[in-house]
Specification:
The chain is an alpha+beta fold. It is 26% helix and 29% strand.
Length: 277
């Protein structure tokens, strides 16, 4: 199967010259984890910017200095096996699809899983691909703490436990983004110096106002935004069946449970890429 069969052609992108704030507003409005960046007025791909870039360098105002320029690119004729290899080696979640440096589309890990792996007829189970190292979170955890836990653990989603220690939901970074708001703050910088020849000694002040936009999470708990109707799998669920579940619910990961309903692991869409031979 070729990339042109599963890629998204209607691409949301940011432009440079442009501001980081404009790109961040675009990411929030479209509820995306990242967007390609093109040269203004053209479709020439020059980089990509993700939510991690905004959180890592919130003080940067210029998109050109914030984005990543070292971007792996593929063509519509690229085989999905090659794309899967790039995803795994470079640890990207999205790959711009280009031809002669022109942006034609984009393909994500989820596209490969939902539109390709889900159609595979394989009986191989997810047992050897699932992760047993789990970072879980309590349903009463504030969203700001949940965000920090995701950042520190490198997880894009966390299983949620209630006060009895039972699985009651799952929360993803996209769930946090849906309720996040852009806030604007202004910093004042003053540089004072005495005026030469002024016998009264008045100070002349050069005042610089720097306005920044930041992504702020509201004072809410995880239980207020989590997905309560959790789709789960067992370690004996087949790779293709698990991919079908992800595709049906439009999720990137599902908890793995045992016969008693206890969570024993997590399986992510990127893990299932390893099953593409």
């Amino acid at each position: 199967m070729k990339i042109e069969e599963i890629m998204t052609g209607d691409v949301v992108y940011a432009e440079v010259p442009g501001s980081a704030a404009e790109a961040l507003e675009l990411v929030i409005k479209k509820n995306l984890s990242g967007v390609p960046v093109v040269k203004r007025g053209t479709k020439e791909l020059i980089g990509i910017v993700t939510r991690n870039d905004f959180s890592r360098r919130p003080e940067e105002t210029q998109l050109a200095l914030l984005m990543t320029r070292d971007v792996a690119m593929i063509t519509p004729e690229t085989d999905i096996k090659e794309a899967a290899k790039i995803f795994l080696e470079r640890r990207f979640r999205r790959l711009p699809v280009v031809k002669n440096s022109e942006l034609l589309g984009i393909v994500t890990v989820s596209d490969v899983i939902w539109r390709a792996v889900a159609k595979m007829q394989t009986e191989e189970t997810i047992e050897k691909y699932m992760s047993k190292n789990i970072t879980a979170i309590w349903e009463g955890t504030p969203l700001k703490v949940a965000y920090e836990l995701m950042r520190l653990s490198g997880a894009r989603a966390l299983p949620v436990l209630n006060s009895e220690g039972s699985l009651c939901g799952i929360v993803a970074d996209t769930d946090l983004l849906k309720v996040a708001q852009l806030t604007e703050s202004t910093l004042k910088s003053e540089m004072s110096a005495g005026s030469e020849g002024d016998k009264w000694g008045w100070d002349s002040k050069n005042v610089i106002y720097i306005t920044k936009k930041r992504l702020e999470l509201p004072e809410m708990a995880v239980k207020d935004v989590m997905i309560k109707n959790v789709v789960s799998a067992t370690k004996k669920t087949s790779v293709s069946e698990c991919a079908k579940k992800m595709a049906k619910m439009k999720v990137e990961q599902v908890p793995v449970i045992d016969a008693e309903g206890n969570i024993i692991g997590m399986i992510r869409d990127v893990d299932l890429l390893k099953a593409i031979g």
